[in-house]
Amino acid sequence: MPFDLFTPFGSNTTAISASNVSASGALNAPTTPMTYSVRVYNACSVAAFIMFAASSGTATATTSHMPIPSGGVETFEVSPSTTHAAVILASSTGTVYFTTGRGA
């Protein structure tokens, strides 16, 4: 079985400054509607809770969303309608990076 490596779309990564208040940002989504991957890197000193949304108006993260540990890297497959990501921290501040592409 071949291993499908992650390949980014260009060099645009969305950096979201995170705190204990939900913050969101637009993803570098593909111009042709398709399912794609988002690689998430939590550069914060605490766990980050993330979620994906179809618009900025619906991108509000809570601490009940998907946790990414401090220093953690995860890759998610998202639907063609996904255009935004949101993040919140239980405490502290930091940056969470979202890179779009194809693969795992």
Summarize the structure.
Helix content is 0%, strand content 51%. With 104 residues, it is mainly β.
Order of helices and strands: EEEEEEEE
C-alpha end-to-end distance: 14 Å
Radius of gyration: 13 Å
Report the strand count.
8
Helix content: under 10%
Total of DSSP H or I helical runs spanning 4+ residues: 0
Average of the residue pLDDT scores:
94
Morphology: globular
Uncertain stretches: none
The major β-sheet equals: 4 strands, antiparallel
SS class: mainly beta
Q: Strand content of the residues, in percent?
A: over 45%
Strand order of the largest sheet: 1-8-3-6
Task: List its salient traits.
four-stranded antiparallel β-sheet; 8 strands; 104 residues; globular; mainly beta
Plain-language structure description:
This protein has 104 residues and is an all-beta fold. The chain starts with 6 loop residues before the first strand and ends with a strand. The protein is globular, with a radius of gyration of 13 Å. 0% of the residues lie in helices and 51% in strands. The protein has strands at residues 7-18, 23-26, 36-42, 48-53, 66-68, 73-78, 84-89, 94-102.
Summarize the SSE layout with pairings.
Blueprint: E1 7-18, E2 23-26, E3 36-42, E4 48-53, E5 66-68, E6 73-78, E7 84-89, E8 94-102
